């Protein structure tokens, strides 16, 4: 997917919005949980290449499957 074509001013505003969203408490908690689980899985010898932790199913899934609600989209989420 190509990068959005935004004016410099719009890109600056989007960067600010995205950062604000990424640093909300729920996102920080998910990042921390993901980091803990990845470290624990690696310690147990699990190969996590190409896998992301899915907070909905509570397991590691492929990056592809973890985007867009496993093919059903995110509108009804």
Concise summary:
This protein is mainly alpha-helical.
**In one word, what is the shape?**
extended
Helix content: 40-55%
Q: Profile the largest sheet.
A: 2 strands, antiparallel
**Count of helix runs:** 2
Protein traits:
2 helices, 2 strands
List the helices and strands and how they pair.
Layout lengths: L7 H15 L2 H19 L7 E4 L4 E4 L15
Antiparallel strand pairs: 1-2
Describe the structure.
There is one protein chain. It is built from two helices and two strands. With 77 residues, the chain is mainly alpha-helical. The protein has one domain. It has a two-stranded antiparallel sheet with strand order 1-2. A hairpin with a 4-residue loop joins β1 and β2. The radius of gyration is 16 Å and the shape is extended. The mean pLDDT is 89.
